[in-house]
Amino acid sequence: MHLIGFNVSGATLSDRPLQRVRVQRGEVVADRPSDSVRGTGLVGAHFFAQVRQRRGQPAGDRDRPSSGLTNIQSEDSRYDPTGTGHTFLYTLEQRVSDDGSWRPACAADPDGRQVAIPIAAIWNEHGDRVESSSQFTFGCTTGVIAKCYRWGYRPWLTGYDDSMVAMHQTCTRLARADYCGIGVPGTRDGTKINVWDRLPSPGPIQRHGGLLGLPPLGMLFEAG
After folding, report:
1. Does residue 185 have a cis bond before it (omega within 30 degrees)?
2. Of 32, 34, 194, 196, which shows the fewest CB atoms inside 10 Å?
3. What global pTM score does this model have?
4. Residue 165: is it exposed, middle or buried by C-beta count within 10 angstroms (0-12/13-18/19+)?
């Protein structure tokens, strides 16, 4: 199945409906009849994800059973090169329809955490970013959507002249070596890459990392 996105409708907290679910910067925010809830206050919330049969399989859309947030924590400052804060990491478990059990939605990242970052957009099977008012993404930190966010290319950032939405999308292509922009990766898990940019002041966000502005030893230019 291809995960399209998480629905802003149908979400609940303590079996009570949440209204106006949205992603603001790096956190999920929702309204209740008497107040708003955000950050760690959403532990225990449930969401429904929209999925679709992958290409080559019978067409048709259906809803995946409920996915629940079992833990929420602030992002580690070492993954915040722009020092803009706000981001939260969400531990998400999904219900297995076959037996009703729950399992982690994300694999363990290099830190051993099975967490995701919310992004106010969705991505299709071709790797295209799609703006949506009805759905959003929980990007696991093992995937490029969250990796590029952690490298500093936060779509909601301003002040760099260039659109950070476009920078983030470009980053998701380069991190997978999807240079044709069709959703087909050209890299392998574990491949080391050196990402850098030429964003104007207060940039760049990522630098070469080597001496005298040169790439690190052993790194050769691949694509821009």
Report:
1. no
2. 34
3. 0.91
4. middle
